[in-house]
Sequence to fold (126 residues):
Amino acid sequence: MLTFNRNYFALTILIFIIEIMIALFVHDRFIRPYMGDVLVVILIYCFVRSFLKLPIITVAISVLVFSFATEFLQYLNIVEKLGLENSKIARTVIGTSSSWLDLLTYIAGITIVIIVEKYWFKKILR
Fold:
């Protein structure tokens, strides 16, 4: 079950760099709020697959549940409840605003993962 997959880890690093670039340099109304959320579930998926050899669907659904739970915590204003409202890192990582559109972007990201895994990277990343 425990493993190290350098291909998934490389994808994790690449997507993380893209996410940082989006956070630092993109201040629009589409890429940052929506594509960033699509990419974040792909990032988490790749990170998990870097270290755990589990079925695609198991990891995909787990990442989706985690993402939904995080969104629910945002709805509950968890950053403020934990007294972290002055922490830029906490506000960025956990998030401060909840939106049902975010749930759709997470679903889109996981759908991309499943399609790519099942049909595109079937032989490349194994």
Observations:
- The chain has a mean pLDDT of 91.
- The chain has one domain: 6-120.
- The helical segments are 6-25, 31-51, 56-75, 78-81, 88-94, 100-120.
- The radius of gyration is 15 Å.
